[in-house]
Amino acid sequence: MTTPTVLVSNTKAVPPDAGTSVLPGGAGERELRLDLFRGLALWLIFIDHLPPNILTWLTIRNYGFSDATEIFIFISGYTAAFVYSRAMDERGFIISSARIFKRVWQIYVAHVFLFMIYLAEISYIATSFENPLYSEEMGILDFLKYPDVTIVEALLLKFKPVNMDVLPLYIVLMLALPFALWLMRRIPDTTLALAVLLYALTWQFGFALPAYPHGVWVFNPFAWQLLFVFGAWCALGGARRMAPILASRVTFVLAVAYLLFAFYVTLTWHVPQLHGYLPGWLESWMYPINKTDLDVLRFAHFLALATVTVRFLRKDWPGLTSPWLRPIILCGQHSLEIFCIGVFLAFAGHFVLAETSGGAGLHFVISMTGLVIMSCAAWLLSWYKAEVSKSGKQPVMAVSADLVGSN
Amino acid sequence: MNIVRIARVTVLALVPAWLAVTPVLADDAHFCSVPAYLLSTDSTLPKVAEAFKARAPIRVLIIGSRSSVLSGPDGAASSYPARFEAALRDKLPGIAISVVTDLHPREMAADVAGKIEKIVQERNPTLVVWQTGTVDAMRAIDPDDFRAALDTGMAALQKANADVILMNLQYSPRMETVLAATNYNDTIRVVAQEHGAPLFDRFAIMRAWSEAGDFDLFARARSIGVAARVHDCIGRALSRLVIEAARINPSELGGR
User: Fold this and answer.
1) Which of B254, B248, B235 is nearest to B87 (CA)?
2) What topology does CATH give the domain B26-254?
3) Do B42 and A136 touch (CB under 8 A)?
4) pTM for this predicted structure
5) Do A137 and B220 touch (CB under 8 A)?
6) Taking CB atoms and an 8 Å cutoff, what residues of chain B touch A283?
7) What pLDDT, in 10s, does the model give residues A126-141?
8) Least confident interval from A257-261, B68-72, B83-87, B234-238
9) Could you tell me the residue ranges of all domains in chain B?
10) Cβ contacts (< 8 Å) between A125 and chain B: which residues?
């Protein structure tokens, strides 16, 4: 295997910086667990974007309240803080902010690119698909008759097709990152408290960003920032300070109890016969579990999941370097590219399924093919990055920071 | 040999044509059957049960949007409200059954909810089937607002002393990348539960048919054939839900 050497060469490049870092111990070492879970989140997001099939039963949203989006946003906050905080140490606030904005631009371009692919697919359906059964639903394609409005609204991030809501959320979060990070590096706990306050105010007063043609953003940035900031807080020492709490038995029992409760509630959605065993007062208190505003139940579920995971999956777990997890980890290391490829593959998969009226077998093949393509692309990107850094044209530090921060 | 082949080809060619022309005859127990759990419900329809006990007329009002009717000259007769009426009459002989529809194309749940009180006053139905969510999903209405609208509508219906069945969106696999149905279907389910109203899970039922291979809902179709057969099946499934939820025993009528 050539790929592991990529990592080794990069981590070796870090030590000059490791000593000065404000980060928790071992700042120079790459946290493979983060890559693993971000890669896993990307795989799950891809599977969830395809129509339901047998693999869908493997995705965590069927076993609890939170889903891959929470993992993705949290880890993105963590790695972004990790990388750009170090950049602020080295190059100062202005340069690091510029780098963050360059990243925002890349994400925006990626989003617009995906929108173009989406338009191509939709235009095809609009002209080729007709069925009297769906004359009402076909009306949604009327937006194609007004490209002037539609395209401009899409460029303004107000018109967002199905499954294309994560990148706009990410753009807004990254735009606020320089400011949040500046604050976080001085008064971390207060910054986290401010994030909680904004979250609470959002629930109280209903802050939201408008969407076109109606409604609000599917992922409300004013609410979801909490996960992003929490990730950043963990990266800048919070995780270390929280370690005693995480290690305590009480926390663990509470987390497991909550996960079991969430699992049971989720089960009642899929096995209607169980539904009678859920008390009415609990239901009326619990429902609806609001994804747009990151329901507290979802946030708590993510915390419980993370607590249990961190306990069982140690940083030095040998499995992290096993070739079997390699594809997922590689995907996690190139998350923007792989996310975009995943969205594109989901569109393509939909298209193939619709054109061939494919059954469960083809469905499974499409899902697996998608995961293989994503992994191959990630491997290719790693290989290319390694080649570039070998040629030594760029400063070593910039390369390694970019690698960590390909979020 | 050749004759057999020709005969086989002819039959194969004729079967789809026959199905398309006579949708009503496709009453095979295995065709478009609905998994039992999709039609079983804890909620009841007391008004329908009462009417049945008294052998009184059952007046059904279907409030819906465009997906409750098919277009074309035979559209109304082939759509599920008419098929539902026929199926229910079939199951409950001797009981006067009337089904009327009140369609609000392009109107969101909030618009319809505001009019429900007046509509129900005019028609005085025993049972209201409220098909909703499609327009709201197409316009991406805020789920909270959608839920509030459903609550308003349900309150008005229950104040008017009518039984209610909520019907959710159609399963339209071709539109999945454009139309996000899940949120709206979830909301409809929750509201139905809260108000003790049975849910006709049109989405899950149609998906079950698609997965069982009863209908190819991906394919393009110019003629009304498949659509009419789907609506026929929806009408019959809905009649089964009504009987099931009202806890009535149609065989009681046989003895008369």
Assistant:
1) B235
2) Rossmann fold (3.40.50)
3) no
4) 0.79
5) no
6) 190, 193-194
7) 888 888 899 899 888 8
8) B68-72
9) 26-254
10) 174-175, 178
